[in-house]
Specification:
Order of helices and strands: EHEEHHEHEEEHEHHE
Shape: globular
Number of strands: 9
Radius of gyration: 18 Å
Number of helices: 7
Structural class: alpha/beta
Length: 190
């Protein structure tokens, strides 16, 4: 497992007893994935991490994945409603992709942190996969509307039916390919 943060690697090592085949390394994946060609059977970049890793992530995945190897990837969706609409209330989503300067603005305890994050669209992801010899087995986005529902709806029991209805709409949209959800998740294969 790779992470740029030494503290996260330390935390991962102490969370449980890992097999001898599992190792963690603190490294910056900006330039390349530090592993041999064709040596990876399954790669994961979850919770938007595929957007934060590198502009050459798909090219590097194509290099390190063995034939038939797969990758589960999560990007910040550049086509997300949460990034395209203006809404004047605090949303449930505590992050916003700024597609103008390729950053993610993250709110935590009344502070805003800026992280590099290249947005991706479903269409661009498919093209990039094909460019590097990968097949996109499936792609979906989630959540679409739940991410922009004002936070106070979640604190009041009288709004639970509204939250449930929005959740059901988002679940349906994720399966129907609207591609407007906050996160773009995909399974790719070499």
């Amino acid at each position: 497992g790779f992470d740029i943060c030494h503290q996260m690697v330390k935390q991962a090592r102490t969370r449980r007893i890992w097999s001898e085949y599992v190792d963690f390394e603190a490294t910056d994946l900006e330039e390349r994935i530090p592993t041999d060609d064709g040596s990876v059977s399954f790669a994961v970049a979850n919770f938007g991490a595929a957007s934060e890793v590198s502009g050459s992530l798909l090219q590097e995945l194509s290099r390190v994945l063995e034939k038939g190897g797969k990758g589960f990837l999560s990007f910040y969706n550049a086509d997300a409603i949460s990034n395209l609409w203006y809404y004047p209330w605090p949303s449930t989503l505590r992050a916003h992709l700024n597609t103008y300067n390729n950053t993610l603005e993250v709110w935590y305890r009344d502070k805003v942190y800026t992280v590099r994050g290249n947005g991706m669209t479903a269409h661009t992801l498919k093209e990039e996969c094909e460019r590097y010899g990968l097949t996109m087995e499936w792609v979906q986005t989630y959540p679409t509307f739940l991410s922009i529902v004002p936070r106070f709806f979640f604190r009041k029991t009288r709004y639970q039916k509204l939250v449930q209805a929005v959740t059901e709409v988002d679940n349906a949209l994720a399966c129907q390919g609207s591609y407007r959800g906050t996160y773009l998740t995909a399974l790719v294969r070499k």
